[in-house]
Every structure is written in C-alpha cells, then in structure tokens.
TrEMBL record:
One of its GO terms (molecular function) is phosphatase activity. Residues 30-39 have a biased composition (Basic and acidic residues). InterPro entries: His_Pase_superF_clade-1, His_PPase_superfam, PGM_Phosphatase. Transmembrane segments: none annotated. This is Histidine phosphatase family protein. SMART domains: PGAM. Residues 1-20, 30-61 are annotated as: Disordered. GO terms for cellular component: cytoplasm. It comes from the Bacteria.
C-alpha cells in the first residue's frame, strides 16, 4: 500500500554570514570621566584621553560577561585608554591581548578637544546647532574633515575584515566611529543617523568584501537599562 509523499516545507531563512566574512562587534567604551574646567584631560596626539568613570568600569564588566561566550577570536582597541580599559574584563576572560587599531580612534574635534565639546553642547553653542543641521563634524574650528574621518574608518574596517576571515572579533571604539560605520553600511543620507550609541553598547556588523551588513545597533540589554 503506497503512502502519500511527505509535503516539502520551506522555512524562513535564518541569516548566516557568507563564507569568508568577518563578524565585528563594535563596543562603545564605557562612560568616561566628566570634563572639569580646572582639571583638563591628558592628551594623546591632540585628543582627549580621559579614564573611565566608575560607571564606565561597570559597563566594561557587563560587556565582558555578555561577550565571553560569543566565540570572539581577536580584540582590538584604539590609542585612547578608555577603549583598552573597557576591553580589559573581556580580554582577561578570553586570555587575549588586544591589538591597537589607531584609525578607529574618535573624530578629532580640533579646537573643541579636551572637554570643550561637552561644555559647548551643554551650553547650546551656535556651532553645535550648525553641526547637527549640516551633519558635519568639521564645522568645528580645526576639526578633522568628514572626508578624512570617513576614509580612515572605511580603510580600518577593511583591514580588520581582511585579517579575520570567517572569524568574530570585538572592536572597542567610540561613539562617533560607530555612528560613521553604520552610516556608511546603510548608505544613510543623514550622516549622523546612527550617532548616539550608548556607553557600553554593542553593535554588530558583518563584512563580506565590499558589502557591510548591519545585524544590530546599540544593544544595551546587558546594561539593564530601560528604553530612554
């Protein structure tokens, strides 16, 4: 007696990275120390280099716990110490030594380095209004040009992907950098569309050749923060 053929089912596709692709977890450093007019930050190549605040060290511990079981093969930090301090708990858990990728350092704010950007944003400086209106960092006197910033970010991501095929890596970097990466990945007309990743947040990019695929942005579930 014949039996009816089993009906073929076609389930929804679940994403998997293409062969040779690199998964990059971009972690914004934990909250850094507040700027104080009478106690300027140390500078590295003209850029402010504050330590993590106590809240930032808590962010770092939470990031370490969140990513400890995610098959991370390599860690990268920038030349600014708040990234290496944020990476330290995960590095200890994985037994990995972070490598420095200098070109993923924060946008250089020119005359507004050393806490002045925070101050002028708080005070409502007219150039801050222009910055948001025009979506350009380089309206700030002496700031790095958008072309220079975007070019070095694109080149750095390409280098990391080329060095890590079929691997997952974690990159501890900065809010402006994450915003630029995701603006480029999404071809957003608004250059600042992804500006504002929270301290200690994790964003996820898949790079396959010239294709940059967004998987998640500003994941803060490990920080136990309510929607703001």
């Amino acid at each position: 007696m014949s039996t009816p053929e089993q009906e073929v089912e076609y389930r929804q596709h679940r994403f998997s990275p293409p062969p040779g692709a690199t998964e990059i977890f971009l972690v914004r450093h934990g909250e850094s120390a507040p700027a104080k007019g009478d106690d300027p930050f140390d500078l590295v190549d003209g850029q402010a280099d504050p330590d993590l605040a106590p809240e930032g060290r808590d962010h770092a511990e939470r990031v370490g716990r969140r990513l400890a079981d995610e098959r991370i093969a390599a860690l990268y930090v920038t030349t600014l110490r708040r990234t290496s301090q944020t990476a330290a708990p995960l590095a200890a858990k994985l037994g990995l030594t972070p490598e420095v990728e200098a070109d993923l350092r924060e946008i250089h704010l020119g005359d507004w380095e050393n806490g002045l950007f925070r101050r002028y944003t708080h005070e409502g400086h007219p150039i801050v209004e222009r910055l948001w209106r025009e979506q350009r960092w380089d309206v700030i006197p002496g700031a790095e040009t958008m072309e220079s910033f975007g070019g070095r970010i694109k080149a750095a991501v390409g280098r990391l992907a080329a060095a890590n095929p079929d691997r997952r890596i974690a990159v501890f970097t900065h809010g402006g950098v994450i915003g630029e990466v995701f603006a480029q990945a999404s071809a957003a007309g608004n250059r600042f569309a992804f500006l504002g990743a929270d301290n200690g947040s994790i964003s996820h990019l898949v790079v396959s050749g010239d294709d940059w695929m967004v998987r998640r942005f500003n994941d803060t579930s490990h920080l136990q923060s309510p929607f703001g």
